[in-house]
Structures are given as C-alpha cells and as structure tokens.
Specification:
single chain, about 140 residues, alpha/beta, Rossmann fold, 5-stranded parallel beta sheet, 5 strands, about 40% helix
C-alpha cells in the first residue's frame, strides 16, 4: 500500500515541520510543502495527494486559504481532492466548509485526539462529494 501523502500549503517553516512530524508519527504520512497557490496547483497536477491542508493566511504572500479552497473546488481536475483549513477561527472554518472543505483544525489543536480522528476521516475512502464530518 502506498504511503499517505498530504500537501501542506502556506505554512511557515516551523509550522510545516511540526505538522510533518506529527502527521508522520500519528498517520505515517509524508507531508509535502507548497509555499504558494501556484506551487500547490502544480504539485496537485503532477503528483497524487490524499489530502490538502491549507493555512488560513498564507505565510509567504498573505493570501487567504479559503481562496485556494474556492479555486480547488471550481477546478474539475482537482475538485475531488479532500481539503481542510488550518485555523483556530470558527468563522474561517465555517467559510471553508461552505466552500466544500472538510472540517479543519487549528494549530493549537494538532495534538488533540479529535484532530487525529478528523484527519483519519479526511483520509478515509468515501463516496465522491461527501463532506460529512465524523460524529
């Protein structure tokens, strides 16, 4: 079975390192960084990823993560890739969900069992278009 691959978009180097270590330890996942939306699009078109994690505000250029979610959902070739927003702000999570993102999490919640459960759910096979969160 292939290793789980996660694309992390817009994280600073420290946060990307923390995410990578945590997701490798708890999920056995490889986490690949993309600094910009353009880089994320190139990576998604050239390689397979099981999940995209988008920072609320891109560390490199200040763009909003929900704009990447909107772009992914409007692209027929990329719309089926599961995506989650990384943000501690409920209003940002609600906006991401309204665009078709799975329920995300904040960086302060990374170590919570609920976050690992949500990530496992995001990585689990399910019918196309289903974004119902775990109970």
């Amino acid at each position: 079975m292939a290793q789980t691959r996660i694309l992390s978009v817009g994280q600073c180097a420290l946060d990307h390192g923390n995410l990578s270590q945590h997701l490798k330890r708890h999920l056995g996942a490889e986490v690949v960084a993309a600094g910009t939306f353009e880089e994320a699009g190139r990576r998604l078109r050239s390689s397979t990823f099981d999940l995209v994690l988008v920072n609320r505000i891109n560390d490199r250029d200040g763009t909003r993560g929900v704009d990447l979610i909107r772009m992914l959902r409007s692209d027929p070739d990329l719309a089926s890739v599961p995506v989650m927003l990384i943000s501690n702000y409920p209003e940002a999570q609600a906006e991401a969900a309204s665009l078709g993102a799975l329920p995300g999490f904040g960086k302060s919640e990374l170590g919570d069992a609920k976050t690992i459960q949500a990530l496992k759910f995001a990585l689990a096979p399910r019918p196309q278009g289903s974004t119902t969160s775990p109970s």
